[in-house]
Design a protein that fits this description.
The chain is of the alpha/beta class. It has 3 domains: about 1-75 and about 220-230, Nucleotidyltransferase, domain 5, CATH 3.30.420.40; about 80-215, Rossmann fold; about 250-430, 2-Layer Sandwich (Nucleotidyltransferase, domain 5). Helix content is about 40%, strand content about 20%. It is built from 16 helices and 17 strands. The strands form 4 sheets. Strands 3-2-1-4-10 form a 5-stranded mixed β-sheet. Helix 7 packs across helix 15 and helix 15 (about 430-435) runs antiparallel to helix 16. The chain is globular. The protein starts with a strand and ends with a helix. The relative contact order is 0.12.
Length: about 450
């Protein structure tokens, strides 16, 4: 069977391929899906990719031939980044927003001048990208230059992105040129050019470009370019691209992705005007948070402890030995009614905690003029749609009820979505694939997204 575009999602454990036809027509269609174990440990991801394509062929009863292959990847640890800025609440925060929105996993964040222990930690992490920020344009100069000198001296062959004070750009180029590492340096617009102004999109684009250029150096990924003819971006970045594309068509939204290891929240909203006037610090329109302690498989025990064993036994109506057996024999894909009920409770807690961490809230401050209320963090009160993607939010029987957790607790001081928000499920589980597809075929990706979400 001839396929217009095949999109591979190369995960740490599973490789999934999604097939699409009718691309760049008025009626694109999702043809089908195949999957196989990811073969990073075998030293070549092409093995698992070929097996996933074969699996697709079996489901279609036809040999698969394709015009174009795109990919998203979280294999080999995904996109590991370290971020180094000047003041945590300003430039470091802006740099983090840029990195997370691009789909990176932040392994280290520092503010101020790097210390020897910081440099040792960077070497131990072995990041895929190092980001240096710091100083508004025409403001403080010294910290970013100091950090650049220290980073360039490390025995690492790692791309370095500079996104700080524009006045430092030529000096930063000189530092890397004199070290013989000018090919490792990427310079982009300042992520925090003025007080109370974020400028994260240029950095996000370059981070994804760097990832695509350097992903082939990850273990087992050396030959990926021999098969992939189009774009490769980090899987979380692809979900963000899909969310941003969708927002332009249907309005403000939040995307919830509960996985085995993490829970990701992507929100795309300017927030309400009345809240923005109260904000202490600016927030990006598109924001991603990743909760590394909230996963329903690898990090299942973390959620069990957050809920409490006694509470779980009461809610699941089971005895202690049954709960311990559930925990001991926990599987990635639940099969029995009790396993499903257990994972649904874990998912509910993951959603509740993750959305609470993602959302901003009100703060009351006292000063000479008396008591004043301010807003801090991301305002989700104007959200129109709550999108569920990922395994848990698309496959569990009570997925719609679980996503209603996003709209609860709105009577407190958190800026959460209201009960007017509409819940939509990514029924075909193709949002990440459509995010990468949207980079070159936005109109087709949008039509396919709406179909999967049952949105007219």
């Amino acid at each position: 069977m001839k396929i217009d575009v095949l999109v591979a999602e190369i995960g740490s454990t599973t490789t999934v391929v999604n097939a699409f036809n009718g691309i760049d027509t008025d009626h694109p269609i999702f043809v089908g899906q195949g999957q196989a174990p990811t073969s990073v440990l075998a030293g070549d991801v092409r093995i698992g990719l070929h097996q996933a394509i074969d699996d697709l062929g079996k489901s279609l009863n036809s040999e698969v031939q394709y015009e174009k292959l795109l990919a998203t990847s979280s294999a080999a640890g995904g996109l590991k980044m370290t971020v180094h800025g000047l003041v945590y609440d300003m430039t470091v925060k802006a740099a983090k927003e840029a990195a997370l929105g691009a789909g990176a996993n932040i392994h280290m964040v520092t503010a101020g001048k790097l210390r020897r222990t910081d440099l040792a930690q960077i070497q131990a992490i072995k990041p895929n990208i190092i980001m240096i920020a710091g100083g508004v344009d025409y403001g403080e100069l010294e910290t970013a230059l100091f950090n650049a000198e220290k980073i360039v001296a490390l025995p690492l062959d790692v791309p370095v992105l500079y996104a700080g004070n524009v006045q430092n750009q030529e000096e930063i180029k000189l530092i890397f040129r004199e070290a013989g590492k000018e090919d490792q340096l990427f310079i982009v617009e300042n992520v925090y050019p003025k007080i109370d102004l974020l400028n994260v999109e240029p950095a996000r684009k370059v981070i994804q470009d760097i990832f695509e250029r350097h992903i082939i150096h990850a273990p087992g990924m050396e030959h990926i370019r021999e098969m992939v003819s189009g774009t490769i971006i980090p899987t979380p970045g692809a979900v963000m691209e899909a969310s941003k594309c969708l927002k332009q068509a249907i309005g403000d939204l939040v995307t919830v992705d509960v996985g085995g290891a993490t829970t990701d929240i992507h929100s795309v909203t300017e927030g309400k005007d009345e809240i923005s006037r109260l904000l202490i610090a600016p927030e990006p329109v598109a924001k991603r948070t990743v909760e590394g302690d909230l996963g329903v498989y690898i990090n299942m025990l973390n959620i069990v402890e957050l809920i409490g064993r006694e509470t779980l036994m009461t809610q699941l109506e089971i005895e202690s030995d049954t709960l311990e057996a559930l925990i001991e024999n926990h599987v990635a894909i639940p099969q029995t009614p009790l396993q499903i009920k257990f994972v649904e409770r874990l998912t509910q807690e993951a959603i509740k905690i993750a959305i609470t961490r993602h959302a901003g809230g009100f703060r009351t401050l006292y000063g000479g003029g008396g008591k004043k209320t301010y807003a801090e963090g991301k305002d989700l009160t104007g959200i129109k749609y709550i999108i569920g993607t990922g395994g848990a939010c698309t496959r569990l029987p009570n997925r719609v009820e679980l996503l209603k957790e996003v709209m609860k607790n709105t009577l407190g001081d958190k800026l959460l979505p209201t009960s007017d928000a509409v819940i939509c499920i990514d029924h075909d589980y193709i949002m990440a694939s459509l995010g990468v597809l949207s980079k070159a075929h936005e109109a087709s990706a949008l039509i396919l997204m709406k179909k999967s979400l049952n949105i007219d």
